[in-house]
Amino acid sequence: RTPIREAIRQLAAIGLVEAKARRGAIVAALSDRELDELFAVMAELEALCARWSAIAMTAGERRVLLSRQEESERLVSAGQRDSYVVFNNRFHEAIYHGSHNRCLAELVLSVRKRCAPFRRAQFQTLGRLARSHAEHDAVVTAIQRGDADLAAREMRAHIAVVRDAVDVVAGEAKRRGERPASADPLAPAAA
């Protein structure tokens, strides 16, 4: 019981469940407006990380980021969605850490945990792996060039596309009369 209580407490702390004393917990419902607000914050935080990474990343960190981007092309070509989700998290975290601002990295990771179920759902849309890879490529190119403004714009645009893809998945599930499985906040997070 203790691990379950702790898991529910953690999910409640990031807003994915509503815990009620002596009544259990229910999955928190987010309105479209709340989801828009959450993704707006995520987009700005990630854009700031990309901006600062373009300025602060070391040559070694830039090589690692470029290498990861090249590796991800294999995953996209093979259609390995689950492996790409893992890569996607590592890619974004490399940019958070590349900002060389621990406070910002911790903040963006905390918001990312709250967005994780929704971000994971985007990969259910047809062709999303390839588009995600191309969006990442634009961010990587800007960081490699040291173009902070472009890196921020490309990352902000990438997160906006993620938000739109979540709506597509939700709309398809609604038409089928179901909830997308990977958008289930109680499923293991790919934060």
Provide an overview of this structure.
This protein is mostly helical and 191 residues long. The protein contains seven helices and two strands; from the N terminus they run αββαααααα. Strands 1-2 form a two-stranded antiparallel ribbon. A hairpin with a 3-residue loop joins β1 and β2 (24-27). α3 runs antiparallel to α4 (81-98). The chain starts with a helix and ends in a 15-residue tail after the last helix. The model is unreliable at 180-191 (pLDDT under 50).
Sum this structure up briefly.
It contains seven helices and two strands; from the N terminus they run H-E-E-H-H-H-H-H-H. With 191 residues, the chain is mainly α.
The helix content, as a percent range, equals over 70%
Strand content: under 5%
Structural class comes to mainly alpha
| Rough outline | globular
Mean pLDDT: 83
Contiguous helical run count: 7
Instruction: Tell me about the largest β-sheet.
Output: 2 strands, antiparallel
**Low-confidence runs of at least 5 consecutive residues:** 180-191
- How are the strands of the largest sheet arranged? 1-2
- Count the E strands: 2
Please give the radius of gyration in angstroms: 17 Å
The ordered string of helix (H) and strand (E) elements is HEEHHHHHH
Termini separation comes to 24 Å
List keywords for this structure.
about 190 residues, mainly alpha, two-stranded antiparallel ribbon, 7 helices, disordered C terminus
